[in-house]
Amino acid sequence: MTNKQDNKDKTRVYEYAKSLNMSSKEIITILKRLNIPVNNHMSVMENDAVDKVEKFFRDIKANAAAKRAATDGGNVSSTTTNQKPASQAPAQENKNAAAPASKPAAPEQTTSGQSAQASNQTSAQGQSQSQSQSPRRSDDQYVASRPQPGRDQRSGGQGHRPSSQGSSGGQGGYQGQRSGGQGSGGGQGGQGQRQGYQGQRPSGQGGSGQGGQGQRSGDRPPYRSNDQRPNQSGGGGYNSRPGGQGGQGQGGNRSGNNSGPRPGGSSGGQMASSPSANSGRPQGGANRSSAGNNRPNRPFDNRNQSGRPVIQEAKPQFHVGASAAELDEAAARAGVKTQKKTKPTPNRFDDNKGKRGPGGQRGNARGRYQQETVKKEKIDNTPKKIIVRGTMTVGETAKLLHKDASEVIKKLLFLGTMATINQELDLDAIQLISSEFGVEVEVKIKVEEDNFETIEEVDDEADLLERPPVVTIMGHVDHGKTTLLDAIRSTNVTEGEAGGITQHIGAYQVEVNQKKITFLDTPGHEAFTTMRARGAQVTDITIIVVAADDGIMPQTVEAINHAKAANVPIIVAVNKIDKEGANPDQIKQAMTAYELVPEEWGGDTIFCEISAKQRIGLENLLEMILLVAEVQEYKANPNKRARGTVIEAELDKGRGPVARILIQHGTLKVGDSFVAGVNFGRVRAMVNDKGKRLKEAGPSTPVEITGLTEVPQAGDPFLAYEDERKARDIAERRATALRQSEMTANSRVTLDDLFKHIKDGEIKDLNVIIKGDVQGSVEALKSSLEKIEVEGVRVKTLHIGVGAITESDIILASASNAIIIGFNVRPEPAAKTTADQEKVDIRLHNIIYNVIEEIEQAMKGMLDPVFKEVALGSAEVRNVFKITGAGTIAGCMITNGKIVRNAQARLVRGGIVVYEGKIDSLKRFKDDAKEVAQGYECGISLERYHDIKEGDVIEAFIMETVER
Ligand SMILES: Nc1nc2c(ncn2[C@@H]2O[C@H](COP(=O)(O)OP(=O)(O)OP(=O)(O)O)[C@@H](O)[C@H]2O)c(=O)[nH]1
Questions:
Q1: For residue 627, how far is its CA from the centre of ligand 1 (angstroms)?
Q2: Residues with CB under 6 A from ligand 1
Q3: Coil, strand or helix: which one is 900?
Q4: What ligand 1 atom has the least distance to the C-alpha of 611?
Q5: pTM value surpassing 0.90
Q6: Can you tell me the ipTM of this complex?
Q7: Is 578 annotated as a binding residue?
Q8: Dihedrals phi, psi of 713, to nearest 5 degrees
Q9: Quick one: where's region G-domain (predicted)?
Q10: Torsion-angle region of residue 962: left (phi > 0), alpha (psi -120 to 50) or beta?
Q11: Model confidence over 887-939: pLDDT tens digits?
């Protein structure tokens, strides 16, 4: 552990990065490369480390200069560019004049040397293999695994720069370089740029093929949500798309065969023979197979929106097999036509539905490649463009392309796959085959618009822009959540808005260092859990507030578990440090039990010591939020219709229904029609948290809108539509569907149908929440349950706690589809009601063995309950009479249902079951009664139990046989 005082005087990674205008990740990567131990962005950099990094920059610079000199000397093919530097250096230069071209590193030159040799097809193959397989510098991987639009563009921009042209567009990357030696010998501006683009993509590939993703997660501070971010898989997928790969192999090949004169330079040469060059049309066998190797990483396996099975072999198939000559010949036979593809005009209401992910999309949409028309041998009635609405068989595809099925099969064969006429092709395969015939594909998947919240939007990486993080504050009662929210808001109001009045709209935005942060202004669990229970995930980051003078309390633990279940990064705000007796270190120590280890102790959780009341440490807290946001790279596409979630809604006397909405994607404009939950409307007016009227609002902006027909519910999904009639129809259909689904059985997991779910492959984890009377039994139950071994399913404990089952437990269970196990405890009345509403399965037990057996049997599908408990009623003990000979008689009031003589009974004290047995006697005044109903008084004695106390509750129930 580093001495804290020392650390104060030293530079941390993120500070150093900031001083260089670089990202922490970049510095971490360099440090790792230099074998300097580094944990994360909070690690302290010794002077020695700073010196080494600076030397690294100097070396790089010197290297680059030497390379440039060599290039100028005419050795174009061997020294120009290596792709990586090309893509990275400009970024560096732009970002930081102090460390120009810092990324190009020596190891790359080796590669580039190889690529220089790779001027024929075969060596190009070898090259691409070696790129993807040889161990690479970590920063290369880092770049490779992050196909950020910004970087792409920078590298594209690099292509334009005279210097990069001078190096024959070789700046464009590995491929570009290889081709650079040849195809771009006459390297022109456009060429250079284009190669820059192409080169960029292969550079990504190398990384992805070799675990670019792994590197990425290694590079980042390990926030859990990393793994879930679509960008990430997009990264890998993007990298491994055949587009880039095609580019790779083609570089060497193409330029060797077709130099300069082609439109589009080296790529143009390629394209003449391969209409699908941008989608990875393989030129060399090995190259193709290397693409094949990469393909399994692609994310679009999941994108078969029709849900129909995709032929898996269709993926590697395109990278194995035919030679370029064969394919050219095939193209000629097929009468391939040149076709420039143009990007369709973006429509805000399109949702990118037709988009297929970054690689493919770009390939299609950007019209980068032109081909020469090949001489036709027969009348060509190939369509220019086809519209695809889902997966199709080979036969259907052929028909749409106006080809014989045999031609399509032949193409597939060339690409290495034996297919039959009835074999199904996924969308990517259809696109590839179509591009083989020079046909543009427009994907129009019919959107199930009624269930718009279930449709995952796929945006082109290039369309995504940074958005503010959305932060929720949680913690135990009185630990200072409200004070913190108020402090942050008022700080901002006074600084940012002269005399601005903050309006309560359920969320607000503050601006720190020119960056915005959106806070959900609903302290406690509502914002978080209620919404999540309704399927809306609005929070990006959770701040857990813990009072330094109080410590970790039950709700703190609950908050941690909620945040973990939702997979969002956690920042711990240790509050009230101004108070006497505050002991932040003790909090940190205690937090380690929940896997929240402070960074200074070698963990990855940010702890901020604050005083919400005295406004101490707030700026640091805000900066830390921005830091997490920077690492997590929260992005959204603002240029499409708005999609979001209702945070709050109410009926305003003057304005009618009012909804506060958090826009999550796209831009909402005044006048837009929309559906919110099962209601529709048209935005009449829109104000932000400062009460300012807005005409439009982009991602992560909270707004209050009027113009609704009815009041939606918090957590309702929100989507803008082109026209009001459509919105109305959809809202009406949603309302009908909701009514129907409420009437039919719901799909929540219950123990009884657990086996069915397992059999259907629906669940792998059985989520449980365990509440018990004492910590010891809860822990014991947890570990016993987690040890149950049933193939294909395991018990995952989301939350454990001591005490009665609360509403919050139910909400967590509902949000996470969990079962609640109560061990010697009962649900609170409100919790019971909520559980009934949410259809959460609560299992109450008092023998550990029974719980384990029940769960195990359920997991094995052997659950065969013969009896089911049927509650009859409950009574409150108001008086206790000790009668010699008769034992203890409880004078009770029946509070609900009825109490029946000889029924089973349970005595509950403060939510804890203290007795379970039978009712011994039941009397009305002095007479024995068979049953006593609600609202009446009675005397109850329990079989062999006399320790009844005032305030106890007696529950009566019977066990009924259940038919299964
Ligand atoms: N000394 C001190 N008191 C604080 C600080 N932050 C909050 N408090 C006090 O702690 C009490 C509880 O603060 P709240 O902000 O209401 O706490 P909360 O977590 O929102 O509580 P609930 O809304 O009941 O869940 C108030 O009296 C605050 O004034 C702090 O940093 N220092």
A1: 26
A2: 475, 477-483, 523-524, 575-576, 578-579, 611-613
A3: strand
A4: 31
A5: no
A6: 0.98
A7: yes
A8: -105, 155
A9: 469-617
A10: beta
A11: 889 999 999 999 998 899 999 998 889 999 999 899 988 888 999 999 999 99
